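Below is how a single chain appears once it has passed through the pipeline. First comes the sequence as given, then the structure the pipeline wrote out for it. We keep one example in the README because the format questions we get most often are answered faster by looking than by reading.
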Amino acid sequence: MTIYCLPDFKSVVDKLSKKRSYNTIEEQIIEYFFNNSIEDIKSGARLNHSQTEPYIKKRLQGAGGFRMYYLVNIPQEKVYLMFVHPKTGSEGSDNITDASKAKIYKDVLQAIKDKNLFKVKLEDGQLTYNDFNDPD
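Resulting structure:
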């Protein structure tokens, strides 16, 4: 499985991971996306009706944790991390609007087309972000 993210996703994760109350964000991403199969990852609230490329909203770390939005390309075993926000605290919010969800979806489709993504890897227990075209 290959994991990618939008540049904005990386920026948000970098910002949140520096705050004490959100410093588990990378750990939560690693635990969910790097320790589960594509079958497990495709579970969550589907925001579209695609069977092969579901757009998913998922809670990480329970009710007070983080809300993730991502796209799964099941046939190609690719995951595109699109947006994350904490549910509580100074940066927390309950949910994003339907218009925001639609914009994020359009943004990821354009980023895939333009290859304006980071490849997300796990190296020495840390997330790393490489250019889309870097070899594996």
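The helical segments are 7-17, 25-34, 38-41, 98-114.

See the next section for the split statistics.
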